[in-house]
Amino acid sequence: xxxxxxxxxxxxxxxxxxxxxxxxxxxxxxxxxxxxxxxxxxxxxxxxxxxxxxxxxxxxxxxxxxxxxxxxxxxxxxxxxxxxxxxxxxxxxxxxxxxxxxxxxxxxxxxxxxxxxxxxxxxxxxxxxxxxxxxxxxxxxxxxxxxxxxxxxxxxxxxxxxxxxxxxxxxxxxxxxxxxxxxxxxxxxxxxxxxxxxxxxxxxxxxxxxxxxxxxxxxxxxxxxxxxxxxxxxxxxxxxxxxxxxxxxxxxxxxxxxxxxxxxxxxxxxxxxxxxxxxxxxxxxxxxxxxxxxxxxxxxxxxxxx
Length: 306
Ligand code: NDP
Ligand code: OXD
What we know:
Blueprint: E1 2-7, H1 12-22, E2 27-30, E3 40-44, H2 48-53, E4 59-62, H3 68-71, E5 80-82, H4 89-105, H5 108-116, E6 133-136, H6 140-151, E7 156-160, E8 169-173, H7 174-183, E9 187-190, H8 204-207, E10 214-218, H9 227-236, E11 239-244, H10 257-260, E12 264-266, H11 276-291
Parallel strand pairs: 1-2, 1-3, 3-4, 4-5, 6-7, 6-9, 7-8, 9-10, 10-11, 11-12
Helix pairs in contact: 1-11, 4-6
The structure holds NADPH dihydro-nicotinamide-adenine-dinucleotide phosphate and oxalic acid.
């Protein structure tokens, strides 16, 4: 069995070592132009040339959860695209989002200012019931995040394409449920995949339906959010702030207004990182299952876009 590794901006040596240890007997190498056909590929942002030269791949394993960039390429016709399925990302996402929600709800930025001014200043406690959190996307990551927020006793709403039932979460679904979901939420956490249906979904029209004093946490993809609409809603006071981990252009360009905005917190696409050991174990397990003719989780539906 041949496995080819083609991951941009990734140090290949530890991955090859880990995959070789997990799949003894497999022939694993870093892809180079003109390399022979492989059975499976481990990829991140591969060049089109790689895909064109590997037309008979059985499966492409993406070392991230989001496949939006991969699906823009011309893929080998019969290869299954397999996304990363948690592999240690869900708990990271839950801690990032809970931190952002609690930091906003408990006004830690204001306490920081008081501390720097040498002031022992209490703030009036706010009511958790006034801070309903809405999570768009109730998949692998969104479900974990919604459950973690519910543990802190925030009212939690969730929105997905198909109807769901999740303990402690008020679930909405489909285009027909979106406006009610927004109206019921003050803090919005975006965990949708980027697809033609979800691009630009966080815009003036949708964000202005959030409850007044709303807060936006975007941890999915930058192209979900219309940057200027966010800035306008912050200026109008309808939104109180935002925590953004993902951007239309990454790295976020120098001079972009998000960098210096007093109500925006920027992090460098780090809310849930790919963890090498967990990822290798997951991919190796799936390759072994496919070799045995078994089904695996995380197969992407290219028509749906996720
Ligand atoms: P999943 O595919 O498991 O979940 C996607 C969810 O979105 C599902 O609940 C799905 O609904 C819902 N959804 C998709 N399209 C629509 C739509 N048109 N309307 C309503 N709901 C929709 O993805 P993950 O949870 O694993 O990951 C989500 C995204 O997070 C990734 O695509 C990636 O972009 C981003 N990400 C960001 C990271 C970071 O570090 N910032 C790290 C990892 C991922 P249904 O359940 O009905 O299918
Ligand atoms: C991912 C990401 O999609 O890191 O996994 O954004």
